[in-house]
Design goal:
- The chain is globular and about 60 Å long.
- It has one domain (48-356).
- The protein is mainly α and 361 residues long.
- The protein is built from 19 helices and no strands.
- The protein has helices at 2-11, 13-26, 36-45, 54-64, 69-83, 87-95, 98-101, 103-118, 128-148, 155-158, 164-184, 191-208, 219-232, 238-248, 260-278, 281-287, 296-313, 318-338, 348-352.
């Protein structure tokens, strides 16, 4: 992608971006007289790796719907929020002005991308998840080029902006942490379902540009890699607190159809309860989480959720009901986050102004 962006910038982004987007939506063969740099990139992208199994990925997409709203809370409170302790990753957000963009918009855009990727069929060529992932990959490359050229980017300490380690951490949040968190909150995912979700996100991360040596074939590899990745991250700093405190109040800014004051504060309390249950004391202090919150939500909801889902799975149509109900819950959550406006990932304004972009998560 970095090589492709070099060519796109030299040839003029206003001319090359439409070619890229056409190739994303319709395939490289739909770009008449496609320039060689574009053809080289998409010839790799459109040839899936040997290990990819489309049916297994489809099974993983359906399994992502099993947890419904619980899965959304896991991604936010066990994936996104603890990740703000990694100050090197935060530095890109600081320098691109993403802190001023607002936590609510970051959560909404990341959630939309995740849901697009995890709808059944969402990662087929030309589908919303596939297109959104390649738009995000382009934005990552533009931001990487922009931030790396800044005088106040300390490459000796922070490394390359949005580097392999950063993207690997995001990939693990959406796969390994997602699976761990769901099970801890009472969603009884089977080994087969966990493997299918892992396979789906292995492909999404490959499409995003994560090197194949960092992609994991099973959950155990992912857990070990998560531990190693966390050890390699720069420690928390003031940006961790700023991002953490902004995310705390994000539920108050959602677009509730009724009782917004009550529902905003209830959701804020639920998210804080989950975070206090699974983030250690040092992490909570680094993120600026308020003290004294009790783990009431996991304790009260995980056991009945486990019993309910286990019971339904024993019924003939119970498993299918859980998937469809969960998918509907996740779609409704998008409406709460965006209200009446749902911008797509990678808008024209974002691509033209990389100084205003962020990466998912």
């Amino acid at each position: 992608m970095d090589e492709l962006i070099g060519w796109m910038m030299e040839s003029g982004l206003s001319r090359t971006r439409p070619l890229y987007e056409r190739a994303v939506r319709h395939g490289i063969d739909a770009v008449e007289g496609a320039p060689q740099p574009l053809r080289t990139f998409f010839s790799r992208i459109e040839t899936a790796p040997d290990w990819f199994d489309a049916e297994r990925a489809q099974e993983g997409a359906r399994a992502c719907g099993l947890s419904g709203l619980t899965g959304m809370r896991v991604l936010r409170d066990l994936g996104l929020l603890p990740g703000y302790q990694a100050s090197a990753i935060n530095r890109t957000l600081v320098l691109t002005g993403a802190l001023e963009k607002g936590a609510q918009r970051r959560v909404a855009e990341t959630t939309k991308w995740w849901i697009d990727c995890t709808r059944p069929g969402g990662m087929r060529r030309g589908a919303p998840g596939y297109c959104g992932t390649l738009q995000v990959r382009l934005i990552h490359g533009l931001v990487r080029r922009h931030v790396a050229a800044m005088e106040n980017w300390d490459a000796s300490y922070y490394g390359l902006p949005i580097n392999q380690g950063d993207m690997h951490a995001t990939y693990l949040a959406f796969s390994t942490i997602f699976l761990i968190g769901q099970r801890m909150l009472g969603v009884p995912l089977s080994r087969r379902e966990g493997a299918a979700i892992t396979h789906l996100w292995r492909y999404i991360a490959w499409l995003m540009g994560v090197d194949e040596r960092w992609l994991h074939a099973d959950e155990n590899q992912g857990r070990r890699a998560l531990y190693h990745n966390l050890l390699a991250q720069a420690p928390a700093d003031e940006s961790s607190r700023r991002l953490g405190m902004a995310l705390i109040d994000e539920p108050l800014q959602r677009h509730y159809r009724n009782l917004p004051w009550l529902r905003g504060r209830l959701n804020r309390a639920i998210h804080l309860s989950i975070a206090h249950t699974f983030i250690d004391r040092n992490g909570r202090e680094a993120l600026g989480l308020p003290r004294g919150t009790l783990p009431w939500y996991p304790l009260l909801t995980a056991p009945p959720r486990f019993a309910w889902q286990t019971l339904l799975r024993c019924l003939p149509a119970g498993h299918e009901f859980l998937i469809n109900h969960g998918l509907r819950q996740q779609e409704a959550y998008l409406q709460t986050l965006f209200g009446d406006s749902r911008p797509r990932v990678g808008t024209e304004a974002e691509i033209k102004s990389p100084s205003e972009t962020t990466s998912p998560g």
